[in-house]
Sequence to fold (688 residues):
Amino acid sequence: MPDLDLDERLRPLERLEPPDLWDDIRGRTPHAPPEANARGRWTAIGVGVAASAVGITLAVRAFLGGTPSARPVEPGPRFNGRIAFLEGTMNPGGSDAQIFLVNSDGSGRTSISHGLHNVSPFISWSPDGSSLAFVEGGGEFLPTNILVMSADGSGVRQITHGTGFDQNTSPSWSPDGSRILFSAASSAPYGLFVMDPSGAHVERLTRCDSEECRRSGGDLFPSWSPDGTAIVFRRLGELWRVDLATRRAEVLCRECSPQGAPSWSPGGDRLAFVRSVGEGEEIATIRSDGSEVRTVRAEPGGRFFGLSWSPDGRFISYGLSGANGSGRPAGIYVMNADGTGVRKIVEGSSAPGAVLCCPAWQPLVAPPPDSGSTTEPAAQANGEIWFRRGGGEGGLWIEAVDPDGSNRRVLFSDTYAGGRDDVGVAHRWSPDGSGVAFVDSTRYIGEVPTGSSWDIYTMNADGTGRRQVTDDGGFDGSPSWSPDGTRIVYASDRGDPNRPACQIAVNCDRDIFVVNTDGTGLRQITDEPGADWQPDWAADGRILFVSERSDPSGDIFTMSEDGTAVTRLTDTPGLQEFQPRWSPDGARIAFVRSDGTSNDLFVMNADGSNQIRIAGDLPVSHSVEPDILDDFGWSPDGSMIAFVAGGDLASTLYVIGGDGQGLRALVEEPQYGVSRPAWRPILAGDRE
Fold:
């Protein structure tokens, strides 16, 4: 790679001529805006640009550029700092949106832009993480301008001084920190400019004057490559790349329809960007040469609000709206760079005019002071599998086995088996693997031990610290933890006025409730005719459940955690679907489908599409009619599913790949039967 300084890399733009780039490129043309220091505001959704000229809505289409490295030729190692994002409300009279910082585990949320007004959704970190460039202003008749401040919110200074219709937006720092790249326009379409961080020495890089370019808005959403050799941006709805060393300009992706600025991976080999697909959007990555487009996160019916690659390259943070009834709550999320391991770190508001968007990950040149206890999302490994053996009128054991089938051992047993009487059933692991929620019966209906009165409990992984969460004399079941481990969603018949008669007949009307793990804060989130049961909470906040509201045989639905945005995923008259389970990354759903004579295990996409049968009619020892039973569990890394197949008392615990491959028997039980597998997550810091 040639050892060129920044000025040398920019000069070739002066000499680009059609058809290398476009109709008219004018390099190093001074931009002389008026000196007035006017700060504007953004109205309703029209943010940062004159929406009629650009043809998009920047409150919904404002995305981060990548976080550049400090060295223009050889990017150095970077460590993950905090994530900046924008939150507030907007309305026709202006906006109170502010810039916040948060650790990547959702802790330490802090506002750093006190006293600023009408901050627009464009944030870019300097390569050393010491400063942010951001945009203030907007609206149909008011300008937007770029400001810079220190990482703690001090030292705010305005570095562009547009007035009237002037729009200065989308800042992106050069990898050596000496320049800021940005889009600007007045009466003409947007072009690309560079300037010093002080706002001096403003120079034009591109001009887009064709009629087609005017209709599309010009050159928008620029982002500087980590090694300083290239710039990417949007033109004519396409993703363009300019190689500053070779003077070559090219379209990276014509059909990608990028919806904002791409974010470079720290190594510069790939770009992440958002594109429209049907009625929704997806996050995709593409190689820096334009090849190998990969979808890493799809959002049917929803909208992404900005994305940012982590400085170490392992994660991507993004903003998400629950637009168009997608059912996903708005928030700031973090996922692995391949789209797995999604975690919500900032909860969005459902208030009118609320905005939450535009994450930008701070690069650090040295590990943060508290790096001994990292705030990054902890990767999950596959721990032991718990399962139940026995039950009914005989003994009950809770056992564990390692994922390879070894090290089978008894953890707890009930009094029939010579142990205690509170081992419970339906164990579900907390997100960090430190505890379990489960169901246990402590009451009788009359003199009959029907088992129809059940409550939710929690305990530590070693069986200590048993705590009762619910106590209503009814049937409470199917517990599932919230992503942050502070709440439990479950199904209950507590609202049925026909109790206890309906409990004995096993036909009570059930609804879904949410409660804090200490038993406080109880909320009912469904209240429809017909039973709602078997909820499962996703890492991003959505809740799966089974309902009879549309079909008495039961179908699978999703909803947001407040019970709104209900979406039906299956519609199979005459067939019953039950026990739905999210994959850890929230991209797939496993469930059981029954025709009344046998059960099969299926997997489908999160929107209900691509339903594939992956297991059924399995050969199970000592069983005349093998069958998939009614519970199973994903492995924490999302690669496998543990389930039980069998009939009568004989059954077998299996694992199988999420694609239906690699079936293996772990535990065969010809006498007592096994059921209820629960796969323990092991966080990265807990691995041996």
Remarks:
- Residues 32 and 363 are 32 Å apart (CA to CA).
- The domain at 386-604 is CATH 2.120.10.30 (Neuraminidase).
